[in-house]
Amino acid sequence: MSFLRKSVHILGSVARRQQHLKVIRGAISTAARDYSSKPADDYANFPGAKAPFVSKLNLIQPEDYAPIPIYRVMDQDGYIADETQDPQLGREVVEKMFRDMVLLNTMDKILYESQRQGRISFYMTNFGEEASHIGSAAALEMRDLIYGQYREAGVLVWRGFRIDQFIDQCYGNTEDLGRGKQMPVHYGSRELNFVTISSPLSTQMPQAVGAAYAMKLKPNNDACVVCYFGEGAASEGDAHAAFNFAATLGSPVILFCRNNGFAISTPSHEQYRGDGIAGRGPMGYGITTIRVDGTDVFAVYNAMKAAREYVLKENKPVVFEALAYRVGHHSTSDDSTAYRPAEEIEVWNTVEHPISKLKRYMVHKGWFDEDVENEYVKDIRKKVLKQIAVSEKKLKPNWREMFEGVYAEMPQHLIEQRKELEKHIEAHKEHYPLKNFEK
Amino acid sequence: MLRTRLIQAASSAQRAFSTSQKALAAKQMTVRDALNSALDDELARDDRVFILGEEVAQYDGAYKVSRGLWKKYGDKRVIDTPITEMGFAGIAVGAAMAGLRPVCEFMTWNFSMQAIDHIINSAAKTFYMSAGAVNVPIVFRGPNGAASGVAAQHSQCFAAWYAHCPGLKVISPYDSEDARGLLKAAIRDPDPVVFLENELVYGTAFPVDDKVADKDFVVPIGKAKIMRPGKDITLVAHSKAVETSLLAAAELAKKGIEAEVINLRSIRPLDTATIFASVRKTHHLVTVENGWPQHGVGAEICARIMEDQTFFELDAPVWRCAGVDVPMPYAKTLEAHALPRVQDLVDAVLKVLGGKAGKAVAANK
Predict the structure, then answer these.
(1) How many domains does chain B have?
(2) Residues B213, B214, B219: CA angle, nearest 5 degrees
(3) Which residues of chain A make contact with B186, given a CB cutoff of 8 A?
(4) Taking the model in full, what pTM does it have?
(5) Total structural domains in chain A?
(6) Can you tell me the ipTM of this complex?
(7) Phi, psi (5° rounding) for residue B225?
(8) Domain extent for B345
């Protein structure tokens, strides 16, 4: 990276060569470090790569490689193509999957509107990606640690995060687990092993790899880390670092790319060249890779089960690409009809929608009762609307808390600042909306 | 030409790396050994502690600070990483979130700019923004500030940069006692700590008390140390500028001026109590740092004094001695002149003392 680094290496090679080599020889069997090519062999043995020699010059084209196929279990009409791939989930589990997806979808619609009405400052919907959230969450154990990007509310729904917890977070009131310190949708729950969402894009990726590495060090570890990120986030430098470190450290982490086709307004064909994010896995980083139809909840579920088993057994990462379509706008700060046709969105919001697909499956199975499900949606709507009214009225956390959590122990200067503020507010309380804050 | 320079730099760097095999006189310890033994102690004390960074394991660290630790503790505790500061800083933050206590080495703090988002947005803020659910006990460490002949991109002081951010603790040790005691304290601290070392003193041996070698020796974070008492003027410095200040104080003593030298040790939290107490005694203050002046550590000290009753104790305006406000020149002579020198400090002190300096000099005669 830099001049200084080079100077350091030169020093190493000139002055410390002997000692350095001794260290290496002492530590690692020489066989593992023997890079000399064998005579009369057309197979190269460079430290950087092992591959055959060829005498014909060839510019390898991206088109020379077939794209990684997309695993799916259920077709558009909700039929399972290959019965061996049916996860054989009981009616109860499939119903929970369906209802969690519906809950997420319903809650999203209302909270989105509540932002439009100016009740909360910001919101992000999960439309079109419900299956990748629920399918992946269902295949995990609660002890598995989740690092989300910001559009993974479904994982929390599956894990048992309640409607009141979602809405209290968005309203930043005194029941918010985040104590009103974050923007809406930045959920986090220690109880549910879900690391609090952090706004800067992709920073969760190397952090997740680091957390997985920490888990690997624990004796008899039986938990992995799942890191969700978008295909846009995969362009950040952090994504490269995460892939490379996951591979070289051997971290039990599932790098779950929600490829929903859009990074705000940037479509995936402008985001990258090559075969999506999955294409980077096996050849690019030497990571085992799975690519699935992210609108097929069973495909995501099966693949996630296999991925989890693999990362824990091998102590190696998996790159997981779930392809879907972001049906909603990026966030409440975006209107996506400015950059994509409404008709296209409509297709993905109907026939291709993950909820519709699962519904059709349930219809074939005879597990779907239209009236019961309509009643369920109505009930959720009622609960969410009622909760908004309740959450809005709840007090904000005590204003003194703004000084808390900066350090494990409050330093003197913050204690003094808080005292100053207390005195100031005591003297001018009539000018502050103190009744809105917890005493 | 470039190659020649590289080799020159390499050989000058080699001087800095040399770890003397000579038996050191009793109660002497180099800063490198102080750091190395602090890491060793803490790796042994707490199995959650691990070191990661470029070249820290097999190569023993670019500056040999982690010498011997990979051999002693193995691949799980001392980890060589691929070259990406952003990447391994992120890995360290994640590992800290998951319960480990990483010590993340930057080959120099100059390269930490690649990782600054993880340091500030993740390490420093997560405890606050998760409402106490996730803490990030982590030490980022490495050499900081001007080295020798490595030009503008390798010669920057980051004390002011990181001290700006709530959530971080920022430490800038000077001698071996500081380095050992503060690094051990930093590793045991529950909050993220930025630990700014100085390459130029790695090989310097400082006298140390027996207690410094103790396994449980720690120096409290947030407390400054008076290196030399004096009654006429206060010099406040951190890192290598403490040395410049001590040398200047010795010069001034020849003129009959007794300067009190304060080694800040911690930049955040800043030990204003010690500075204020000293100023109440001497009524004069010069701040000394090798970083740039604007929004620097000295600027912050000036502001803190003005916000306090101590302002009325001053008999003259405070003077800042800082690095020159340009990117560090490569040329050796210019580099030397771009940093506060002993003579600069002596001149500054005489200027601040004004007539009183004359009286002191006269009294001495």
Answers:
(1) 2
(2) 85
(3) none
(4) 0.83
(5) 2
(6) 0.73
(7) -130, 135
(8) 225-364
